[in-house]
Amino acid sequence: MVVESADNDAKKQVNQVNDLITQNVNALIFIAQDATSALAGVKAANNANIPVIAVDEKPESGDGKLATYIATDSVKASHDLATWMFKQIGGSGEIGLLTGVLGATAQVQRTQGFEDALKENPGIKVVATETANWDETQAYKKVQTMLQGNPDIKAVFGESDAMGLGAAKAAKDQGKTIVSVGIDGFPTMVAAIKSGLTQATQAQIPYQMGQLAVKDSLLIVTGQASQVPAEQYQNTVLVTKDNAATVDTTLFYGPNVR
Known about the structure:
By secondary structure, this protein is α/β, with parallel strands linked by helices. The protein folds into 2 domains: about 10-75 and about 205-235, Rossmann fold (3-Layer(aba) Sandwich), CATH 3.40.50; about 75-205, Response regulator (Rossmann fold). Helices cover about 45% and strands about 20% of the residues. The protein has helices at about 10-20, 35-45, 75-90, 105-120, 135-150, 160-175, 185-195, 205-220, 250-255; strands at about 30, 50-55, 70, 95-100, 125-130, 155-160, 180-185, 200-205, 230-235, 235-240. α4 links the parallel β4 (about 95-100) and β5 (about 125-130).
Protein backbone atom coordinates (compact mmCIF):
# COMPACT_ATOMS: atom_id res chain seq x y z
CA MET A 1 0.00 0.00 0.00
CA VAL A 2 1.25 3.47 -0.94
CA VAL A 3 0.10 6.26 1.38
CA GLU A 4 0.33 9.97 0.51
CA SER A 5 -0.67 13.05 2.51
CA ALA A 6 -1.72 16.20 0.68
CA ASP A 7 -1.23 18.37 3.77
CA ASN A 8 -4.54 20.15 3.04
CA ASP A 9 -3.23 21.21 -0.38
CA ALA A 10 -5.66 20.39 -3.20
CA LYS A 11 -3.12 21.02 -5.98
CA LYS A 12 -0.59 18.80 -4.27
CA GLN A 13 -3.19 16.06 -4.02
CA VAL A 14 -3.97 16.19 -7.74
CA ASN A 15 -0.26 15.72 -8.48
CA GLN A 16 -0.09 12.83 -6.03
CA VAL A 17 -3.04 11.13 -7.70
CA ASN A 18 -1.35 11.46 -11.08
CA ASP A 19 1.86 9.99 -9.63
CA LEU A 20 -0.05 7.03 -8.22
CA ILE A 21 -1.68 6.45 -11.58
CA THR A 22 1.73 6.29 -13.25
CA GLN A 23 2.71 3.70 -10.64
CA ASN A 24 -0.18 1.54 -11.91
CA VAL A 25 -1.86 1.13 -8.54
CA ASN A 26 -4.75 -1.35 -8.54
CA ALA A 27 -7.17 0.90 -6.68
CA LEU A 28 -7.29 4.44 -5.30
CA ILE A 29 -8.71 5.23 -1.87
CA PHE A 30 -9.33 8.94 -2.11
CA ILE A 31 -10.01 11.39 0.74
CA ALA A 32 -10.42 14.51 -1.36
CA GLN A 33 -9.20 17.90 -0.17
CA ASP A 34 -12.15 19.54 -1.88
CA ALA A 35 -14.99 18.39 -4.09
CA THR A 36 -14.08 20.52 -7.11
CA SER A 37 -10.40 19.67 -7.56
CA ALA A 38 -11.09 16.02 -6.76
CA LEU A 39 -13.04 15.51 -9.97
CA ALA A 40 -9.88 15.80 -12.08
CA GLY A 41 -8.23 13.03 -10.08
CA VAL A 42 -11.27 10.78 -10.36
CA LYS A 43 -11.46 11.26 -14.13
CA ALA A 44 -7.73 10.57 -14.52
CA ALA A 45 -8.09 7.33 -12.55
CA ASN A 46 -11.16 6.38 -14.59
CA ASN A 47 -9.18 6.86 -17.81
CA ALA A 48 -6.52 4.52 -16.44
CA ASN A 49 -9.18 1.96 -15.42
CA ILE A 50 -8.30 2.36 -11.75
CA PRO A 51 -11.31 2.08 -9.41
CA VAL A 52 -11.80 5.00 -7.01
CA ILE A 53 -13.06 4.57 -3.46
CA ALA A 54 -13.97 8.03 -2.14
CA VAL A 55 -14.02 8.54 1.62
CA ASP A 56 -15.60 11.42 3.57
CA GLU A 57 -15.45 14.14 0.87
CA LYS A 58 -17.48 13.38 -2.24
CA PRO A 59 -15.94 14.64 -5.50
CA GLU A 60 -18.06 17.07 -7.46
CA SER A 61 -20.58 15.44 -9.76
CA GLY A 62 -19.59 15.22 -13.39
CA ASP A 63 -18.40 12.52 -15.74
CA GLY A 64 -16.13 11.00 -13.09
CA LYS A 65 -17.17 7.61 -11.70
CA LEU A 66 -16.71 6.25 -8.19
CA ALA A 67 -16.58 2.56 -7.33
CA THR A 68 -18.08 3.49 -3.95
CA TYR A 69 -18.45 6.44 -1.60
CA ILE A 70 -18.02 5.96 2.17
CA ALA A 71 -18.96 8.71 4.59
CA THR A 72 -20.67 9.69 7.80
CA ASP A 73 -24.39 10.38 7.50
CA SER A 74 -23.68 14.04 8.17
CA VAL A 75 -27.23 15.24 7.62
CA LYS A 76 -28.60 12.95 10.33
CA ALA A 77 -25.63 13.55 12.64
CA SER A 78 -26.05 17.32 12.42
CA HIS A 79 -29.84 17.16 12.75
CA ASP A 80 -29.67 15.01 15.87
CA LEU A 81 -26.93 17.12 17.46
CA ALA A 82 -28.82 20.36 16.79
CA THR A 83 -32.00 18.85 18.23
CA TRP A 84 -30.07 17.87 21.37
CA MET A 85 -28.57 21.36 21.66
CA PHE A 86 -31.96 23.05 21.30
CA LYS A 87 -33.32 20.94 24.15
CA GLN A 88 -30.44 22.02 26.39
CA ILE A 89 -31.56 25.65 26.11
CA GLY A 90 -35.22 24.87 26.66
CA GLY A 91 -36.30 24.91 23.03
CA SER A 92 -36.11 28.69 22.66
CA GLY A 93 -33.61 31.50 22.47
CA GLU A 94 -30.88 33.02 20.33
CA ILE A 95 -28.03 30.92 18.96
CA GLY A 96 -25.03 31.19 16.65
CA LEU A 97 -23.85 28.91 13.85
CA LEU A 98 -20.27 28.25 12.75
CA THR A 99 -19.98 26.62 9.33
CA GLY A 100 -17.07 24.78 7.78
CA VAL A 101 -15.44 25.44 4.41
CA LEU A 102 -18.28 26.58 2.18
CA GLY A 103 -19.11 24.07 -0.53
CA ALA A 104 -17.34 21.14 1.13
CA THR A 105 -19.52 18.05 1.24
CA ALA A 106 -19.48 17.95 5.04
CA GLN A 107 -20.37 21.65 5.29
CA VAL A 108 -23.31 21.34 2.93
CA GLN A 109 -24.68 18.24 4.64
CA ARG A 110 -24.14 19.47 8.20
CA THR A 111 -25.78 22.78 7.42
CA GLN A 112 -28.72 20.94 5.88
CA GLY A 113 -29.14 18.78 8.98
CA PHE A 114 -28.94 21.84 11.22
CA GLU A 115 -31.53 23.69 9.15
CA ASP A 116 -33.84 20.67 9.16
CA ALA A 117 -33.74 20.64 12.96
CA LEU A 118 -34.25 24.40 13.05
CA LYS A 119 -37.52 24.05 11.11
CA GLU A 120 -38.75 21.67 13.79
CA ASN A 121 -37.95 24.16 16.56
CA PRO A 122 -39.63 27.52 15.86
CA GLY A 123 -38.56 28.90 19.22
CA ILE A 124 -34.91 28.90 18.18
CA LYS A 125 -33.55 32.01 16.44
CA VAL A 126 -30.19 32.07 14.63
CA VAL A 127 -28.88 35.59 15.16
CA ALA A 128 -25.36 35.08 13.79
CA THR A 129 -23.83 32.78 11.19
CA GLU A 130 -20.11 32.78 10.49
CA THR A 131 -17.75 30.64 8.41
CA ALA A 132 -14.74 29.46 10.41
CA ASN A 133 -13.39 26.88 7.93
CA TRP A 134 -13.12 24.03 10.47
CA ASP A 135 -10.50 26.09 12.35
CA GLU A 136 -10.41 26.64 16.12
CA THR A 137 -8.61 29.99 16.00
CA GLN A 138 -10.98 31.39 13.39
CA ALA A 139 -13.93 30.14 15.42
CA TYR A 140 -12.58 31.76 18.57
CA LYS A 141 -12.27 35.15 16.88
CA LYS A 142 -15.65 34.89 15.15
CA VAL A 143 -17.44 33.95 18.35
CA GLN A 144 -15.77 36.74 20.31
CA THR A 145 -17.33 39.21 17.87
CA MET A 146 -20.56 37.20 17.72
CA LEU A 147 -21.08 37.37 21.48
CA GLN A 148 -20.19 41.05 21.69
CA GLY A 149 -22.86 41.87 19.12
CA ASN A 150 -25.40 39.37 20.44
CA PRO A 151 -25.04 39.13 24.22
CA ASP A 152 -28.16 36.98 24.60
CA ILE A 153 -26.80 34.03 22.61
CA LYS A 154 -27.41 30.84 24.57
CA ALA A 155 -25.61 28.34 22.35
CA VAL A 156 -23.24 28.01 19.39
CA PHE A 157 -23.42 25.12 16.95
CA GLY A 158 -20.01 24.26 15.51
CA GLU A 159 -19.95 22.08 12.40
CA SER A 160 -16.67 20.61 13.64
CA ASP A 161 -15.07 19.93 17.00
CA ALA A 162 -12.35 22.49 16.40
CA MET A 163 -14.95 25.20 15.88
CA GLY A 164 -16.97 24.02 18.87
CA LEU A 165 -13.86 24.25 21.03
CA GLY A 166 -13.05 27.72 19.70
CA ALA A 167 -16.58 28.86 20.51
CA ALA A 168 -16.41 27.50 24.05
CA LYS A 169 -13.05 29.15 24.73
CA ALA A 170 -14.26 32.49 23.38
CA ALA A 171 -17.31 32.38 25.63
CA LYS A 172 -15.25 31.39 28.66
CA ASP A 173 -12.79 34.24 28.08
CA GLN A 174 -15.71 36.68 27.99
CA GLY A 175 -17.13 35.27 31.20
CA LYS A 176 -20.19 33.88 29.45
CA THR A 177 -21.84 30.50 29.84
CA ILE A 178 -23.15 28.97 26.61
CA VAL A 179 -23.85 25.53 25.21
CA SER A 180 -21.17 24.67 22.65
CA VAL A 181 -21.19 21.57 20.46
CA GLY A 182 -19.24 20.11 17.54
CA ILE A 183 -18.98 17.18 15.17
CA ASP A 184 -16.00 14.78 14.90
CA GLY A 185 -15.43 13.04 18.22
CA PHE A 186 -11.81 14.16 18.60
CA PRO A 187 -10.19 13.09 21.90
CA THR A 188 -9.60 16.78 22.70
CA MET A 189 -13.32 17.46 22.38
CA VAL A 190 -14.24 14.48 24.53
CA ALA A 191 -11.79 15.77 27.16
CA ALA A 192 -13.41 19.21 26.96
CA ILE A 193 -16.82 17.64 27.52
CA LYS A 194 -15.50 15.80 30.58
CA SER A 195 -14.17 19.07 31.99
CA GLY A 196 -17.40 20.95 31.28
CA LEU A 197 -15.87 23.36 28.76
CA THR A 198 -18.05 22.03 25.93
CA GLN A 199 -21.24 20.02 26.03
CA ALA A 200 -21.45 17.53 23.15
CA THR A 201 -19.98 16.10 19.97
CA GLN A 202 -21.24 13.74 17.32
CA ALA A 203 -18.35 11.30 17.06
CA GLN A 204 -17.57 10.01 13.60
CA ILE A 205 -15.90 6.62 13.19
CA PRO A 206 -13.15 7.18 10.57
CA TYR A 207 -11.22 4.14 11.79
CA GLN A 208 -14.14 1.96 10.71
CA MET A 209 -14.51 3.90 7.47
CA GLY A 210 -10.85 3.31 6.64
CA GLN A 211 -11.17 -0.40 7.30
CA LEU A 212 -14.23 -0.56 5.07
CA ALA A 213 -12.42 1.30 2.27
CA VAL A 214 -9.58 -1.23 2.29
CA LYS A 215 -11.97 -4.20 2.38
CA ASP A 216 -13.98 -2.76 -0.51
CA SER A 217 -10.87 -2.08 -2.59
CA LEU A 218 -9.84 -5.72 -2.17
CA LEU A 219 -13.28 -6.91 -3.25
CA ILE A 220 -13.20 -4.65 -6.29
CA VAL A 221 -9.74 -5.65 -7.52
CA THR A 222 -10.53 -9.34 -7.06
CA GLY A 223 -13.58 -9.20 -9.29
CA GLN A 224 -16.20 -8.92 -6.55
CA ALA A 225 -17.29 -5.33 -7.18
CA SER A 226 -20.96 -6.39 -7.26
CA GLN A 227 -20.73 -6.86 -3.47
CA VAL A 228 -19.81 -3.21 -2.94
CA PRO A 229 -22.69 -0.68 -2.62
CA ALA A 230 -22.47 2.59 -4.54
CA GLU A 231 -22.80 4.62 -1.34
CA GLN A 232 -22.24 3.65 2.30
CA TYR A 233 -23.13 5.91 5.22
CA GLN A 234 -21.88 5.38 8.76
CA ASN A 235 -23.63 6.29 12.00
CA THR A 236 -22.19 8.54 14.69
CA VAL A 237 -22.08 8.38 18.49
CA LEU A 238 -23.42 11.30 20.51
CA VAL A 239 -20.97 12.06 23.31
CA THR A 240 -22.18 14.18 26.23
CA LYS A 241 -21.32 14.53 29.91
CA ASP A 242 -23.45 11.43 30.49
CA ASN A 243 -21.10 9.08 28.62
CA ALA A 244 -17.87 11.04 28.04
CA ALA A 245 -16.15 9.38 31.00
CA THR A 246 -16.76 5.88 29.69
CA VAL A 247 -16.65 6.27 25.91
CA ASP A 248 -13.66 4.62 24.23
CA THR A 249 -12.23 7.10 21.71
CA THR A 250 -10.05 4.38 20.19
CA LEU A 251 -13.26 3.05 18.63
CA PHE A 252 -13.45 6.31 16.66
CA TYR A 253 -9.84 6.89 15.64
CA GLY A 254 -8.03 3.62 16.28
CA PRO A 255 -5.72 2.34 19.02
CA ASN A 256 -2.96 4.89 18.34
CA VAL A 257 -5.10 8.00 18.92
CA ARG A 258 -6.23 8.88 22.42
